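anyone seen this seq b4? input:
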Amino acid sequence: MPIRFRDRQDAGRRLAARLRDADLRDPIVLALPREGVPVAFEVANMLQAPLEVFVARKVGAPGQPEFGIGAIAEGGGQAIDRLASRRRRLSPARFDALVADERRELDRRVRQFRGTRQVPALTNGDVVLVDDGLATGVTAEAALRALRARNPRRLLLAAPACAPEAAARLREIADDVVCVISPAEFSSVGQWYERFDQTTDEEVLDLLDRAAQRRVPMRELEREGIGAKLDDRDARSHDDGAVVIEQAPR
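predicted toks r here
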């Protein structure tokens, strides 16, 4: 049987180990909130990379909001499950109305999680988009399409547990899809976690604040002549040879 993760932190550490040899150049880690943030926090910590959210929203079927018939992402990314839409006999106008409702919620979450911060410039850089798992993958697809338009050098999608069909489809958009497990029998993301509690808004904001204390290898600071200038108020040494530079609160 494939492994099960204790929680999202455990899943993030295992996923980070898979990404260690991905040959990433100055990566930026983007998390799909809310549930992708605890996973992405561990990935960003291992890669010593910036962490930010990239917001996408599932578009649910009328009367069945948990059943995704599409998804939208900030920046205009959109994915549609046309088969599901046809089965529910949704007209284009009705689908557009559902999208408009979700767009308002998406904008609210962008303001909540990022405030006035903008998504970092991604052109010619390496981007790792992280979620806690891929079932249909429709939300990740919308985000990938929006991110692809920003012209990153490489665009990776990373998730601890992936349905094989979703991973295969999304490799047509991402440069690669990195999974820890991809079991043939995949009914839901939660089945691969021992603890699968909902992530709260407060937890998301706390993790983003903690990630703002950027980890920098001491050897890089010394190369730039910065190491000798740091004092106990600026940085704290760690056993792994890194320091944490205190940054302004987000």
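The chain has a mean pLDDT of 85. Residues 92-114 form the longest helix (23 residues). kinda curious what u guys think
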